[in-house]
Design a protein that fits this description.
Layout (H helix, E strand, L loop, with lengths): L16 H54 L1 H11 L7 H11 L3 E8 L5 E3 L19 H10 L3 E7 L5 E12 L4 E12 H7 L4 H4 L2 E8 L5 E7 L9 E7 L2 E9 L3 H62 L3 E6 L4 E5 L10 H4 L10 H17 L1 E11 L2 E11 L9 E8 L1 H15 L9 H18 L2 E9 L2 H8 L1 H18 L5 E6 L2 E9 L3 H20 L2 E3 L2 E3 L3 E8 L6 H17 L5 E3 L2 H20 L5 E10 L4 E12 L3 E3 L1 H11 L2 H20 L8 E5 L2 H4 L4 H12 L6 E6 H5 L2 H14 L2 E7 L6 H6 L4 E4 L1 H5 L5 H16 L3 E5 L4 H9 L4 E3 L9 H5 L4
The structure holds ligand C2E.
Protein name: cyclic-guanylate-specific phosphodiesterase
Pfam families: CHASE, EAL, GGDEF, PAS_4
Organism: Nitrincola nitratireducens
Length: 864
């Protein structure tokens, strides 16, 4: 049958079994009964003929005994006739007769029916004179004999001399004048007991036979029971008529009804039933066995089919697996093999079986295969081990998966080894790796790989107590070349730079491109001595600078490229990866600041500042939560010296570092974004202060200006925040001034102007802080709703010494006034400065001359 189409037909053989068993039981029971019946019939017949034989034998014996014994009457009758009625010497003759008839009890002569002679006399004396014709018991049979003239058997009767006997009575007739005249009787008497004894009737009992000896009446009916060995004779008796003189006896012989006979029949019936049951059982067993056999056949078919299915499934699965599959033992001997890709084989498939890896694989691959086998032998499974093979001049990569097969303890362990061709994956992985870790333009490691190598270098330093150096290289005039000659040429230059960098370093070092024209060289495994390390790093940097200075030929022209190189040395545990990179970067900027084409080592002072900033940023995060900020207020006065307002200046009281000036922490807050919550805090506290002043009649006119950082101002909801604060503290918007710096106005002017217009609509005043230090432009001054210009204190400081500063202050005041803006000078420390500015019509003044930043209470003392 076809494997695919093979199906199982399992017949239902469960029905029919009980019927067959019942039929077999019934048929067997019937046959058994018939056999028993037949056997019983035969037994019956045989017993019956046996009975008949016994009955006839005993009847015949009785008849013979009687006839023979009673025939003695004829002898006696002859004697009577011969003696003409007289018998001489009767006793002697009778004695002689007795010898011939030993079973006769006694002989009697009864002339006219009266006993006159008896032999033997002894014991029978009493019978003498007994009249047979007149005895009421015997007279009927005596008369019968007389009248019939035939010998007649009388009895059994009770004899007068005692006991029971039968009497053969022969009537004797004498010729008298030619006339027959009755003389009397000759009698032969037999003791019944003796007769029966000799007739052996008792032996029937031994034959399990019952008998009954009856005397029959004239009409043939039993009239007197003579003898019997059983109370009841069965109706199926064998009856034999015994002809006795002038009468008949009947001998009935029947089997004695024995219990065991019916028991035997019942036993036979039971045996029949038992045999029937056995036959039925056998039938059931045969049917069951057949059924079981058929069931087993079905199961075998079913299992075979399943095995076929599983096998074809396995075969299809194996065919679908594009891998090489081997079954091998621990010695590498190949026992089974499967491969849909014949092109990946190092030998013909048939050559694999029975051979080991040693016969096909090169050393390296073989070692890996055995190591995978050993691993699988120990752990049950091995995966991920890879090896490569040269097939048709191409390098192919294979990955091994090995699993240990369950085996009996006597056998060597076997393994399923799958070898997967991962060449494509390897190629893809390496291109992905290239993309992920290498700069596509120059082929140099990118920033990620550099950091990885730096990490390894730090670890190496820690283990081997060595040092490393990082060189940050920036091409000084790359931008000019790129912009003037185009990006393609710029790219070409970068590629050539990369080649020269690689040429300048050892194999253990790394040259990376981390962006634009920025390259980094990682020098690892340098001596522990800092001086020597610095010397080596400086030498490499000089070599690189020199190599780069050699002209590059780009578009047939030669270009000289200079570079700024920053160097930092590192050991393990001192700094993080980013920090090391940052230090080299800083050093590079130092080199740039030093006039380019220079090599600079990282300045620890710079780093200290960075570290300090870092610490400040950590502290700033906690400062708000721990309420470490407070505001001071610096007075602002008019030309008359009257207090018109104040500038709110934030103060940070650090628990360990003490009072930290805003110039130190505000830039850090701006850089970290913390300026937003801090600015919010300042706004709220300034508004709170204005709210307090509102209740003082002499202070309610005071304005309060606050510094707003660029980041704070560029928040999309900045205006809403101001509005909410005004509402919350119910203050006059005119009293609140926002100080913005010039630099804030340059970026995203539309957004700045929109916000400024919204704020001025609210009534908020805007002041331009540090005016004169930035890119002041008349255009935006005109377009923006600014109320005030604040002259930067650096100009005020030198106003009396430096003409330029004085001129600048003059110009700012004139400009402000020409634009109808209020002008305020900050940093006024002396009377001369105040007078100069006042003469120039500066409107307001702020500076130590009028008061240093102080608490709100201190400030109000200036009024009261
Ligand atoms: N030598 C001298 N200095 C004078 C004189 N008069 C005023 N000053 C100082 O000049 C600075 C004026 O503030 P700024 O220009 O806005 O410059 C501020 C401002 O840019 C920033 N700042 C202060 N508070 C805040 C604030 O709440 N928010 C923001 N964003 N920045 C603030 O920190 C800067 C420095 O603030 P401060 O250290 O408080 O220094 C204040 C003030 O104490 C004087 O006669 N002589």
């Amino acid at each position: 049958m076809d494997r695919q189409t093979k199906s199982i037909v399992i017949k239902d053989r469960s029905t029919g079994t009980p019927y067959s068993v019942i039929v077999v039981f019934i048929v067997t029971a019937i046959v058994s009964m018939l056999i028993i019946w037949q056997v019983e019939s035969r037994n019956q017949d045989s017993r019956r003929s046996d009975l008949a034989l016994h009955a006839h034998n005993h009847a015949s014996l009785l008849e013979t005994l009687l006839n023979q014994s009673l025939s003695a009457n004829y002898a006696l009758a002859s004697l009577v006739r011969a003696g003409d009625g007289e018998v001489q010497h009767f006793s002697a003759i009778a004695a002689k007769l007795h010898q011939h008839y030993p079973i006769v009890s006694h002989f009697t002569l009864s002339p006219n029916g009266i006993v006159s002679e008896v032999y033997p006399l002894e014991g029978n004396e009493v019978s003498l004179g007994f009249n047979q014709l007149e005895d009421s018991i015997q007279n009927a049979e005596a008369l019968l004999a007389k009248e019939s003239g035939l010998m007649t058997l009388a009895g059994p009767v009770a004899l007068v001399q005692g006991g029971t006997g039968v009497i053969g009575r022969l009537p004797v007739f004498m010729d008298h004048n030619q006339e027959e005249r009755f003389w009397g009787f000759t009698n032969v008497t037999l003791r019944l007991e003796e007769l029966l004894r000799i007739a052996n009737l008792d032996t029937l009992s031994n034959q399990n036979m019952a008998y009954a000896l009856w005397k029959l009446s004239k009409d043939g009916a039993p009239s007197q029971l003579i003898s019997s060995n059983s109370e009841r004779i069965r109706s199926d008796s064998v009856d034999v008529i015994i002809n006795v003189p002038n009468g008949a006896w009947l001998l009935k012989v029947a089997p004695i009804h024995l219990i065991f006979e019916s028991g035997a029949l019942a036993l036979k019936l039971l045996l029949g039933l038992f045999i029937s049951s056995l036959a039925a059982l056998q039938t059931w067993l045969i049917i069951s066995l057949r059924h079981d056999r058929a069931f087993l056949e079905d199961r075998v078919t079913e299992r075979t089919n399943e095995i076929y299915q599983a096998e074809s499934q396995l075969r299809a699965t194996l065919d679908a697996i594009p891998d090489l599959l081997f079954e091998v033992d621990i010695k590498g001997t190949i026992h089974l093999f499967h491969s849909p890709k014949k092109e990946l084989l190092l030998a013909k498939p048939e050559d694999f079986i029975g051979h080991t890896f040693d016969d096909f694989l090169p050393d390296e691959a073989r070692v890996i295969c055995y190591s995978a086998l050993n691993e699988a032998n120990e752990k049950g499974f091995s995966s991920g081990k890879c090896y490569s093979l040269e097939i048709d001049n191409q390098c192919h990569w294979f990955e091994l998966s090995v699993s240990k097969k369950a085996a009996s303890p006597d056998n060597l362990p076997r393994f399923i080894l799958i070898s997967r061709d991962i060449t494509e994956r390897k190629t893809n992985a390496s291109s992905i790796e290239r993309l992920a870790f290498y700069d596509p333009l120059t082929g140099l490691p990118n920033r990620r790989l550099l950091l990885d190598r730096l990490q390894q270098a730090l670890a190496w330093n820690e283990r081997h107590e060595t040092k490393g150096a990082l060189l940050f290289i920036d091409l000084d005039n790359f931008k000019v070349i790129n912009d003037s000659l185009g990006h393609a040429v710029g790219d070409l230059l970068l590629e050539k730079v990369a080649i020269r960098l690689n040429a300048a370093i050892r194999k253990v070092d790394t040259a990376a491109r981390i962006g634009g024209d920025e390259f980094v060289i990682l020098l690892s495994d340098l001596p522990e001595d800092t001086h020597l390390t610095a010397l080596h790093a400086e030498r490499v940097a000089s070599k690189i600078a020199q190599l780069l200075r050699n002209p590059f030929t780009l578009l047939d022209n030669e270009y000289v490229v200079t570079s700024s190189i920053g160097i930092t040395l590192f050991t393990s545990g001192q700094a993080s990866l980013d920090e090391v990179l940052q230090r080299a970067d800083l050093a590079m900027y130092q080199a740039k600041n030093a006039g380019k084409n220079t090599i600079c080592f990282f300045d620890p002072a710079l780093q200290e500042q960075i570290d300090h900033n870092l610490e400040l940023s950590r502290g700033l995060r906690l400062a708000l939560d721990y309420n470490q900020f407070f505001l001071e207020f610096q007075p602002q006065v008019n030309r008359e010296g009257a207090l018109v307002g104040a500038e709110a200046l934030i103060r940070w009281c650090h628990p360990e570092l003490g009072l930290i000036p805003p110039n130190r922490f505000i830039p850090v807050a701006e850089e970290t974004g913390l300026i937003i919550p801090i600015g919010d805090w300042v706004l709220k506290n300034a508004c709170k202060q204005l709210h307090i002043w509102k209740s003082h009649s002499k202070a309610k006119h005071l304005t309060l200006s606050i510094n707003v950082s660029s980041r704070q101002f560029s928040q999309s909801n900045f205006v809403e925040q101001i509005k909410a604060c005004l509402n919350q503290y119910e203050i006059d918007p005119k009293c609140l001034e926002l100080e913005l710096t010039e630099s804030m106005l340059v970026k995203d002017q539309n957004d700045v102007i929109t916000k400024m217009l919204e704020l001025s609509k609210l009534g908020i005043q805007i002041s331009l802080d540090d005016f004169g230090t930035g890119y002041s432009s008349l255009t935006y001054l005109k377009r923006m709703p600014i109320k005030q210009l604040k002259i930067d204190q650096s100009f005020v400081k030198d106003i009396n010494m430096d003409l330029d500063s004085a001129n600048l202050c003059d110009a700012i005041i004139s400009l402000g006034h020409s634009l109808s803006l209020e002008v305020i000078a900050e940093g006024v420390e002396t009377l001369d400065q105040f007078e100069y500015l006042a003469q120039r019509n500066c409107d307001l003044f702020q500076g130590y001359y009028f008061g240093k930043p102080s608490s709100a209470d201190q400030l109000l003392k200036l009024i009261f």
